[in-house]
Input
Amino acid sequence: MTALRSLVERIVTKNDFFHQPHIAEINCLDPGSSYYYDLRARADYPGILKNGLPVIKYPDFEFINPVNAAQNGLANLQLYWDTGNEIRLAKSLKIADALVAYGEKEDDGLVWRYPITIAGHTNWLSAMAQGQVASLLLRLGCVTGNDWYNVKAKEVLKPFFVPITKGGVSCLLDGKYIWFEEYAIPSPPYTLNGFIVALLGVRDGSIILQDMVLKSLYEESINTLTSVLYYFNCRGWSLYDLSFASLGCFKMNNLASPFYHRFHIELLKVLEILTNIEEFKKQRLEWENSRDYGTRIYSAIAEKMIYRTLKPVKGATI
Output
């Protein structure tokens, strides 16, 4: 990567604790002793904690984002696996316990609703949050042998079987492909990174809980991705989601920022390891090429900036 490419990427990438590189973990097949990508740098949150959970400052309010909290717990668990340091395990357990207490019981499920307004909707669920919290709880169940964490993980995974229209996180893409939406609102944007992280949580449940229904759901979600991954390829660069903005007669796609483009690449590396599916490798290589060579990174950033001008997000970079 040239110095110019690196400089431009740094300028447009949000600089905070939770925007750090996600590098795929090569040894990620066993969910009882590993996680899918490296979160270790997120183990010690420097900001405000409430009951052990990181408080995230948004432009108009503060909020405990369950995704950030789950990543904080998984980071400490990764460090525990690396070192055997019981302090790291204790911290991960404290975060998990606090997350469960912070969640809300709805029907048979355990959920975390977001007070953030998106397209006029608030108090929505996130498949990414539900999946990543489940991933944390299931791993702690394995490490400790305490089945309580597995029971709670089952509750966390309940919304995957409920459509968004009925208060869950699932919907259909093109009317036939199962989709787990990071922003579970009535008109879902079909967010790529959130879908993949969510399906990894479903995989964890299928293996650790030995649940054949979850196994079937995981396999269906992998089929979705092999069928629609090309939807997210825009002239060699990845899309963040399938939403768009209009500029006269032109349609502006919501391209991924360089940060999320890199994350998509790492997630495809994980899926290659898990499935050995050729489509994931082929798309990863194309996206790596556009990241490292040629001018596509510059045009992608320019297109993203235009999209952000047309559809601004308060406090966002690109």
